[in-house]
Request: fold
Amino acid sequence: MSDAALRPDTQEIVVDEVFPHRPETIWKTLTTANLMGRWLMMPAGFEPVEGKRFTYQTTPAGAWDGTIHCQVLEVKPNERLSYAWKGGHEGNAGYGSPLNTVVTFILSEVEAGTRLRLIHFGFVLPRNETAFQKMGEGWKKVVKNIGAIVGETD
Amino acid sequence: MTPKKMCAVFWRCQTLIVRFGQRATTNLPPKQISLDSSISPRYCFPMIEAASITAVMRALADPTRRAVFEQIVNADEITVVELTRASSVTQGAISQHLKALKQAGLVAERPEGRKVYYRAEPEGLEPLVDWMSHYGVFWRDRFANLRTLLKEIDP
Reply:
């Protein structure tokens, strides 16, 4: 566990799904650069070795060039992979603002295949004001996007 | 529960709500919530709060109601008559939609004389903001890609 997990004012994103495949197969997609490139993003310099540094290239924003700086923190083959995920710039709000987070994949064998849990933690909550108030005019745009998401409940 | 209070509760257990929202929108069977060392104990909040996001999602799942809500958002304040004028449905239907939006905490009303003015309550949407946050969407998209890739390499 990194110190990000211990910061009380942070939150995490969790995605938790069962895939009808063996843990070994899923592990390959998490740790082979070419396969990572096919579902996640193509990493530069990745190796499933603790301490290894690598990067992902994402969309730039303001003074940030879009590079995500990662470092492998934990490798337990077919069970657990964790890496630091850092990027952003002080000058940005929302997308592109500073990120000091950790991404962890946890695999566990279940009857139907493999349960894969992604925990992306260390997102810092804005202080004194909600993210929503900060969004200001942006929130009208958000409303437009809701349809796409809630539409799926039908 | 007032929208303000509802939001305060939401804010405290965002993670649970994100998980719940994910389940609500994909119609997956309920997942067991585990409490292993990798996940903080915040997960053991009762499900009462999570029921509220269902109300928000239900309220906005109806396209007509969503259109009504968008109209309210774009106006600072608006009356039922004005909403009806801009819509293809009856005033009675609009009133029903307003009732649902009010119950979900998305709309507030202010009576003035014989008129009632409606305005949007952005706080009501707060639980959805995190859900829609960049990485929330990012990872769900990527998991969908992964599913497709796995089918290809391991049919």
